[in-house]
Amino acid sequence: MDRLFLTPDATALAQVISEATAPAFMLGAVAAFVSILVGRMNAIVDRIRHLNDIADDDRSRAHLKSDIPRLRGRLSLLSSATRLALASAVCTSLLLCVGFASAFLRLQHVYGAGGLFFVAVALMGVSLFRFGQEVTIGISEADHYL
Fold this sequence. Notes:
The chain has one domain (10-139). By secondary structure, it is an all-alpha fold. The protein is rod-shaped, with a radius of gyration of 23 Å. It has helices at residues 10-19, 21-52, 68-105, 110-138.
């Protein structure tokens, strides 16, 4: 029980702090990426709202409403990418917590930290893939109207 209240080794803490650099940069990258995703989602929601405001008897623009299912598909892809990126950020935050907790408890954390970092990077990779899918269908002729 005394082990829980031991002061951490300064060398171990310094090591954990130096190992925290990559996850800290990853958290910053994920935050910037989520900001981009949310901005794109807001633009799509605004576009859907504008299309829904077109009166059914407006013959010159009513055909634009046919783009709503494509926009909803894009929104779904962006929402999925955002959830995956946030899951990556949670894994990265957990990685930082595990690193510091293990230093305080004088436990080895290398394998757990490596596993968490792998999961975080994999989630971010899948998120980028979903974003790439959205970008692929993102631009069409209908986006140039309204």
